[in-house]
């Protein structure tokens, strides 16, 4: 359904020689479900807020050519800050935005920002609180984690969408032998449906395995109208799962920094080792926040996601990017 749905890959594309793993049977499924209902005590590891995002020992600004062929000039930290595309407000909120002041001609590239943690993670609980996220025609924002050897070390897309989407799409990309089992659909939020079962990704088949959260508060304008909210992603050897909480419904254990995922109810997405050996497919992930401009998915879904004309013409007009900004409260990581 979502052709070219995610090209958030790291270059260079390396060989797809995946590790062959055994297939995972019923006992693994039960183990995953049991694990899901076990209280895990999480301890705060990293708390990124305010100037943390501009601190080069914690986050780096990616300023190479966009691997997904967007009409975008990702900015260095110095340039992003001098152009007012990355800054911390007086209240401590961090803004990462697309340039919305420069008039371009059709086909020219627009300035934007893509940042990633210097630190790599091999599991844990990741909690991000955003007051607002980018949306609008020609935008492709994402909050995600990814390993260095794509796709064999995996990619976890926690928030992702394009243009005027009114739903979030949660995706895993992996090496061979990793898929969602359709039975998991009964264990997730009633607003979530499986879009694609196959996580294994290659340059020619790169949809990944997906859940669509039809809750309009989960993405874009609907997210921002509620004052944003919190996304949580729990990554263990048994399962990767995500929860979304709109601003008014953030559990107090998250606010208190004593998060207990087993108290949060059904997740928005659940990927378990019933269909994928999580431990061997996902490793050494950095956390990334970016806003792409046009590029693969944005352009292939341009009209189906509410936009008219061409992506390149849309990029030329600065005011089309007035809503293209991340307003970040914090990103926190926890370990058990
Ligand atoms: C989790 O375990 C508790 C205690 O065994 C049980 O009461 C509860 O129904 C379980 N929850 C789920 C979602 O399975
Ligand atoms: C940047 O982060 C490092 C690691 O936490 C810290 O030691 C350093 O003081 C920070 N730099 C600034 C300017 O805050
Ligand atoms: C599903 O989305 C609707 C609309 O935003 C919301 O009212 C409802 O609480 C959501 N249900 C769950 C289980 O999250
Ligand atoms: C750019 O976008 C910001 C954030 O939405 C908005 O406050 C500002 O007025 C816009 N700038 C221009 C020149 O329209």
From TrEMBL:
Signal peptide: 1-17
GO molecular-function term, one example from the UniProt record: hydrolase activity, hydrolyzing O-glycosyl compounds
Domain GH16: from-to ranges: 46-336
Domain of life: Eukaryota
Assigned keywords, A-Z: Hydrolase, Signal
Record carries keyword Oxidoreductase: no
One example of a Gene Ontology biological process annotation: glucan catabolic process
Transmembrane segments: none
InterPro entries attached to this UniProt entry: Beta-glucanase-like, ConA-like_dom_sf, Glycosyl_Hydrlase_16
PANTHER family recorded: GLYCOSIDASE C21B10.07-RELATED (PTHR10963:SF24), GLYCOSYL HYDROLASE-RELATED (PTHR10963)
Official protein name in the record: Glycoside hydrolase family 16 protein
